[in-house]
Specification:
The complex is a heterodimer.
Chain A (H helix, E strand, L loop, with lengths): L1 H16 L2 H29 L4 E6 L5 H10 L3 E5 L5 H10 L5 E5 L1 H6 L3 E4 L5 H22 L4 H5 L18 H35 L1 H6 L4 H41 L7 H6 L3 H28 L3 H7 L1 H19 L4 H8 L4 H11 L4 H29 L9 H10 L1
Parallel strand pairs in A: 1-2, 1-3
Antiparallel strand pairs in A: 3-4
Helix pairs in contact in A: 1-10, 2-10, 3-6, 8-10, 8-12, 8-14, 8-16, 10-12, 12-16, 12-17, 14-16, 15-16, 17-18
Chain B lengths: L1 H10 L4 E12 L2 E12 L3 E5 L6 H8 L7 E6 L6 H4 L2 E4 L11 H10 L5 H14 L15 H13 L5 E5 L7 H16 L3 E6 L2 H7 L2 E6 L2 E7 H8 L3 E7 L10 E7 L2 E6 L6 H10 L2 E7 L4 H13 L6 H9 L1 H7 L1
Parallel strand pairs in B: 3-7, 3-8, 5-6, 6-7
Antiparallel strand pairs in B: 1-2, 1-4, 8-9, 10-12, 10-13, 11-12
Helix pairs in contact in B: 4-5, 4-6, 11-12, 11-13
The chains are: A mainly alpha, B alpha/beta.
Amino acid sequence: MWHNVWAVIRREYLQRVRSKWFIVATTVGPLMMAGLIIVPAWLAVQGEREQFDLAVVDGTGVLYEGLASRLEKGGFQVEEARWHSNVVTELRERANGGELGGFIMVDELTLETGEALYYSMDVPTALRQVTVQTSVARTALEYQLEQQGVDPEGLLGGGELQVEVLSAAGSDISEPQFAIAYAGAFFLYMVILLYAVAVMRATLEEKTSRIVEVIISAMKPSELMLGKIMGVCAVSLTQMAIWIAAAVALLAGAIPMLIAARPELANLENLREIAPGMGLTALFVGFFVFGFLMYSGLYAAVGAMCNSDEEAQQAQFPMITLLIVPIVMVAPIIQAPNTPMATALSLFPLFSPILMWARVSGGGVPVWQVALSFVLMALMIWVIAAIAGRIYKVGILMSGKRPTLPELWRWVKEA
Amino acid sequence: MGPVTEPVRIMSDNGFALRLSGVTKRFGAHTAVDGLDFEVPRGVICGLLGPNGSGKTTSIRMIMGILGPDEGTVSLFGENPDVTRRTKVGYLPEERGVYKKMKCLELITFLGEIRGLKRAEARRRGGAWLDRLGLPEWADKKVEDLSKGMQQKIQFIGTVIHEPELLILDEPFSGLDPINQDVLEEIVRDYHAKGTTILFSTHLMDQAERLCERVCLISNSRKVLDGELKDIKAAERRGIVAIEFEGPDSWIQGPEVDRVEQGDDGLHLILRDGFDHQPILARAVNSGARILRFDLVEPRLHEIFVRHAGGRAVGDASMSEGASMASSSEDAVVGAA
């Protein structure tokens, strides 16, 4: 038996991995990911680079230090220019000579109103204007507060709110966690659907081209179905392994190197902090594999019972629904992951890959629930294999019109 | 006592590569195969003959386990036709299915592998077959780049790659040009010489006549006739006499002779049914004519088929070719009846 299954797996795997589609999707995916992250950050910095050398003319004698440190945090290179009657002309010349991107003048009025003058070689971007403006205003405010004998740190930092959660049902989910939970759930939906549909199309193609008649004369339908699903599964795992490896290379290799070379890209460091860790990644792959095994079985049965792409499009409607329902519920469930409703829905095996993932990646789900969801999914795989396997066995060699539900039920009972 | 066991063994199912007993298949109200009995002894080339729609492909699908019979049984090599038995069969379906995106040699290798060959061995044999059929440069080309005829050759290689004991070929010659039909016929003869049992279906009677030792004629879902081709022909050898002579021709006309036709090999006397040719010969000798040739013409398979199946084939409009075949031969059938 395994000789045949293995032959089917190998055929399926090699055919797909060598296809142009696979090569393009697998390489373009990480490239786009890297591109979306790095290129905008790099471009933004690139365009502004020369404009970030600023001189500060401090007419008050008390603002320079604070202002310089704020501006430097915002990515500027700052130097102090002494105030004298010709300072504007002099700095203007230096800027025209390419030495400076511009200069800022603060004086006594600044201390009272926060007004300042910013001479710039170009029209500054909104971001640059805001950075300069808030730096000036905050430095002035800081000075005034100090004069009043008040600690400026806390107030200027925007205060601090300490939250005590009184009930166990609450969860505090940070923004990056929300993004990962949501993006991950959507990604799971896409890959499960994509690869399950691949199984369906392959089954349909074998059926309509009639090559299945030759194959079934040499092996049991269950062997063909198993080999097909395992083959596609191996392809999908290969693709995911490449993607994960690319992400690791990007986060652990490319970004630190980039930051070392261009310190102004320091913001990219944040990515490393929000990226899911090993445990969460493994869980993601686990949810994918179990989800794929459930849905690919159903999709294989659909492929086997249909005779054309059009029929298959219609017949896959129930499965699409089963995948879309949890997607719709992802957002509310991330917000309130521990309500009885959320728990129950995420334990329903066909919803688990998406909903349990959403809850887990948001944090605060008991381990036993995750374990239980995997046990329930495993049971579901077994049930689907039994039912879908019978439909597959009858359908794959059947031609003529698509079976009705009662007919399907008869196939399941009789096969 | 030794020799006694031998015929007994042959008489048992073991002597047959294939046996169908009372096999019936219905699709809704339509009976596609009706109580079909026939067997193929080991080592024989057998033709399954009949017009399109007569039930040939349905029968073959039941043999291959693709369809389950509603009644009756199929046995392969004397046993249930399960997967183990079926891997000893090389099956070329009527509808030529291939994995179009695969490279030719890989497809052949895969088909060998699932019939139990080791991968390397399947690859080696596949390469040798591609050489033999003049396709070596196509080994690494995708199947979809090949012409239909070439695809069919690839599929045929996939059918025989595991050196099956029984070859079941459904309309193997259709879609091939005459040269490739000859190539295929040659290969089929080779396998026959090696002792492989071969069952092939066709609606081309000439092909069957050239190749088959046994035939099974079916029409409108039922078996019409089966047995050794030479026995059938011998039994059917009646009704037409080819003659060459010098001298008077008055002896030709008589109660036995229905009509006279000019054949390729002299005059053909078409006899009325149930009349013997012997009185004609007596008359000829008495008339003083000099008889150069007086030959009972062996009937063509086509004529035999029409003689037996024609009447039954009439009136089933759903099988276009069967119906047209029947109507074109109706005169002959009536004449013979």
